[in-house]
Structure formats: C-alpha cells, structure tokens
Write a structure and sequence with these properties.
2 domains; alpha+beta; three-stranded antiparallel beta sheet; elongated; 14% strand; Arc Repressor Mutant, subunit A
C-alpha cells in the first residue's frame, strides 16, 4: 500500500469511528509497524495544522482520534446553538482528582479520602463521561473500580495521565492538614 493510500485509509477510519483507535489496530490495517504508523499520523497532524484545516488529529496514550480544532468551536456553537455544558463543582473536582491520581480506585477508597459519601459525585462524573467503571477489585464483594476516560484527557488538555501535574510533599502535607481541620470541624459541629 503506498503512502497516499495509507493516509487516506487512516483518515477514513478515524473519521468513521468518531472515537480513538489504538495504534496497533491502525498499523495492522495499513500493514506498517506501530512506530511507523505513529510517524505517519504525526506527519498528517502537522500537515493539517499547517493547512489550517477545521479538523486535526490528537494522540491519546496509545491511540489516535480525529477532532475539531479548538479555533472552530465558536462556529460549532453557533450552529449547535446550545452545546452540552457541565459545571464541575468543588465536590466534583475533588472526587475527580482523587480518581485521576489514585486510579483504579473503589468508591469506598474515594469516600475514605474525602470523608463523605461520594455516590452522587461519581454518578455525575460518569454522566459527564469523565469517569468510568474499569473493572472489579479481586476482594470480597468484588467492588467496582473507577478510572478516568479519554474524555477526561480531552477536557483537561492532556494526552496521557503522565502529563497530570505531580503534587509536591508540601502540597500533600497542606492537604492533610486541611482534611484534619475539616474532620475536627465536623466533629465539633456534632
């Protein structure tokens, strides 16, 4: 298969799928190595950016997806009139942060860290497609495990979880102190 055909096949697959496709699957289709497939997709991405096309390519861990360029959002909003929006409250952000950094994590683990019931927060994050069930823990009761989604990566502008900022020891200690103060406050209110 020549290079032009490979590019056309990759473009057709990514357009049709509408979601990310693993590099391994793409490389099998175009009969290339995963490394060479990544190189072709990276070159396509650069070419499309130079041409200022309305669509682009993004890499999400070991997969690629076709997407709309950010510069086009205002025009999409005009045509869609009322795009789906969601608001992340402090509670949702706290819960999402715990899941992002601790995944895979059970609901009980999140509740232990936060100190309150997290059913509603996790359900809302699942509705927003930021969190999903990723399996079950091999323990009594087989509790569900939660992790972040590709939508989480897109929403926060990172291509992999490794790009999430790391917490310093000072920040961790500050968080522990804040949590202890909140627990003390709750106990004094009771």
């Amino acid at each position: 298969m020549d290079r032009k055909k490979q590019e056309a096949v990759l473009e057709a697959i990514l357009f049709t799928m509408g979601e990310s496709v693993e590099v391994g699957r793409l490389s099998e289709i175009i009969e290339e190595t995963p490394q060479r497939t990544n190189e072709i997709l990276e070159e396509m991405k650069q070419s499309w950016e130079e041409q200022k096309r309305g669509i682009g390519l993004i890499a999400l861990e070991d997969a690629w997806q076709m997407c709309t360029r950010k510069e086009m959002y205002e025009y999409l909003i005009r045509i869609a009139k009322s795009p789906k929006k969601y608001t992340l409250t402090d509670t949702l952000l706290e819960t999402l942060s715990i899941i992002a950094y601790k995944q895979p994590v059970t609901r009980l683990d999140v509740e232990r860290i936060r100190g309150v019931n997290c059913d509603h927060a996790i359900n809302r994050l699942m509705e927003f497609d930021l969190v999903m069930e990723v399996g079950r823990m091999d323990a009594p009761g087989r509790p569900l495990l939660f992790g972040t989604t590709e939508q989480f990566l897109r929403a926060f502008g990172v291509s992999s979880l490794e790009e999430l900022p790391s917490l310093s020891a000072v920040q961790i200690e500050e968080f522990k102190e804040q949590a202890a103060q909140e627990v003390d406050q709750l106990q004094s209110d009771v």
